[in-house]
Amino acid sequence: MYFYIYDSFLTLKKYARTLAEVETRLTDLGISGKIGRLSPFTSAKGLIRDEMRRGTQTVVAVGNDETVSKIVESIGGEMITLGMIPVGAPTCIAESLGIPYGEAACDVLSKRVTQRIDLGRVNGRFFLSSLRIPGGRVTIVGGDGKYRITTPADDCEIVVSNLRSGEMLGVDHETANVPGNPMDGLLDALIMPRMTSLLGRRRPLGSSSVITLKRLDISSDEPIDAIADGYHFVQEHLEIDVVPDCLKVITGRERVFAR
Amino acid sequence: MFQKQEAMTNREIGREPETIISASVKLEGDFVSQGNVLIEGEVVGSLKTEKDLRVGERARISADVTAASAIVAGEVRGNIDISDRLELEPTAKVFGDIRTADLVIASGAVVCGKITMGSEATSTAKAGKVGRKAAGKNEFSVDLDEDSSSVEASADRLIEGDSVDQEETNKKTVNAFFTK
């Protein structure tokens, strides 16, 4: 049984046609199901909890990366399969999983190719793709406290990535452009210099660092501004780790890992 | 069934981890990696990898280094223990002892320390025996003194028991060039 969760922004008129096409296709494929809608007063967690009691085993996020983030945060560690129908923007997570935009995603759902993947966790909150810290001087402690990495200055961005998506393309090092494998039980911490625009071309100010680890702590003298899969929050200290085999997800043939 | 097999295969194969410490980043402490490591920044403490290490031209390492093989173009202050092959590029500066199976030193590289070479050298180090006595092996030791720019090289061969044929079999050809 499928449970579809529509994000609140899908009530906008410009998405009406796409949603109508999606619903028609789902009915044709025989995988239509109950629909829940997010709103300022309805959380994904509450909707999913109620449906789990009724025996739902597959939850489908209809929306963008932030929609997926809200649902992943709710179902991480549960015996529930996650599917996606990307509508709106950005949809980098769905792209990385090989799921096409809109109506075409319904065919991927019906084929139901699943992979069990890792999730990242920051201060108890799950993330599927990446955690971004846009700026600020921070200290990274890795290897269970055995080593410490100091970032150069405010002009660099830190990304802790589980499944690296297209948004990171353009980083100078080839390694940084290789998609992270969400099935290896590791996270990639990327320390990337800010991009500068020179003569109309965006270039990094320096080279990037990449460190592969299972667990890391990030601290700073000031509160840390962070974004986990599009969800924005501020914390004094970040404890980040990887939870292996945490989520069963429906993927397409064009996924960027485990091909 | 086939999907499950595919997932298993991918997990078994895994991905080769890659670590890059770029020029503007400083790493302090005991860093251990299971994959290839590229250092272009600063490292203080100890550095150990089970695979290959590359130390960039601008890199500064104040640490004991252990790796399977290494190419050094920057500065290393500490002992280097390489189980396979060590290459020092023209810009390399090493202030510490080197223990490796195979060594290439390019013209212009600076080494200040003791070099111990030979196929058994690294295994002896692993066993925690730093002695020079070993049966049926060749040991090559070089001391470089930076102040006097003098090079002292000595090859000690301690053969016990086995025939000369065994000695020839174990002999290692070393192509090392030292230029000050």
Main β-sheet description of chain A: 14 strands, mixed
Number of domains of chain A: 2
Number of helices of chain A: 6
Give me the secondary-structure category of chain A.
alpha+beta
Helical amount of chain A:
10-25%
Molecular shape of chain B = globular
Give the rounded overall mean pLDDT of chain A. 85
Number of strands of chain B: 15
InterPro entries (chain A): ATP-NAD_kinase_N (IPR017438), Diacylglycerol_kinase_cat_dom (IPR001206), NAD/diacylglycerol_kinase_sf (IPR016064)
Protein name (chain A): DAGKc domain-containing protein
Pfam families (chain A): DAGK_cat
GO molecular function (chain A): kinase activity
Topology:
The complex is a heterodimer of chains A (259) and B (180).
Chain A: E1 2-6, H1 16-29, E2 34-37, H2 44-53, E3 58-63, H3 65-75, E4 81-86, H4 92-96, H5 104-111, E5 113-122, E6 125-127, E7 130-133, E8 139-142, E9 147-150, E10 156-161, H6 174-177, E11 187-193, E12 195-198, E13 201-204, E14 209-213, E15 215-228, E16 231-251
Parallel strand pairs in A: 1-2, 1-3, 3-4, 4-16
Antiparallel strand pairs in A: 5-6, 5-16, 7-10, 7-15, 8-9, 8-15, 10-11, 11-14, 12-13, 15-16
Chain B: H1 2-13, E1 18-21, E2 26-33, E3 36-39, E4 42-49, E5 52-55, E6 60-67, E7 69-72, E8 75-77, E9 80-88, E10 93-95, E11 98-105, E12 110-112, E13 114-117, H2 119-126, E14 137-145, E15 150-158, H3 164-170
Parallel strand pairs in B: 1-3, 2-4, 3-5, 4-6, 5-7, 6-8, 6-9, 7-9, 8-10, 9-11, 10-12, 11-13
Antiparallel strand pairs in B: 13-14, 14-15
Domain DAGKc (chain A): 13-122
Organism (chain A): Candidatus Uhrbacteria bacterium CG_4_10_14_0_8_um_filter_58_22
Protein name (chain A): DAGKc domain-containing protein
Question: Would you kindly provide a written description of the structure presented here, covering whatever features stand out?
Answer:
- The complex is a heterodimer of chains A (259) and B (180).
- With 259 residues, chain A is an alpha+beta fold.
- Chain A contains six helices and 16 strands.
- Chain A has helices at 16-29, 44-53, 65-75, 92-96, 104-111, 174-177, and strands spanning 2-6, 34-37, 58-63, 81-86, 113-122, 125-127, 130-133, 139-142, 147-150, 156-161, 187-193, 195-198, 201-204, 209-213, 215-228, 231-251.
- In chain A, α1 runs parallel beside α5.
- The longest helix of chain B is centred in the first third of the chain and has 12 residues, at 2-13.
- Chain B is globular.
- Chain B has a 15-stranded mixed β-sheet that branches.
- In chain B, a hairpin with a 4-residue loop joins β14 (137-145) and β15.
- The model of chain B is unreliable at 1-15, 128-141 and 145-180 (pLDDT under 50).
- Chain B has helices at residues 2-13, 119-126, 164-170, and strands at 18-21, 26-33, 36-39, 42-49, 52-55, 60-67, 69-72, 75-77, 80-88, 93-95, 98-105, 110-112, 114-117, 137-145, 150-158.
- Chain B has three helices and 15 strands.
- Chain B has one domain (18-170).
- The chains are: A alpha+beta (259), B alpha/beta (180).
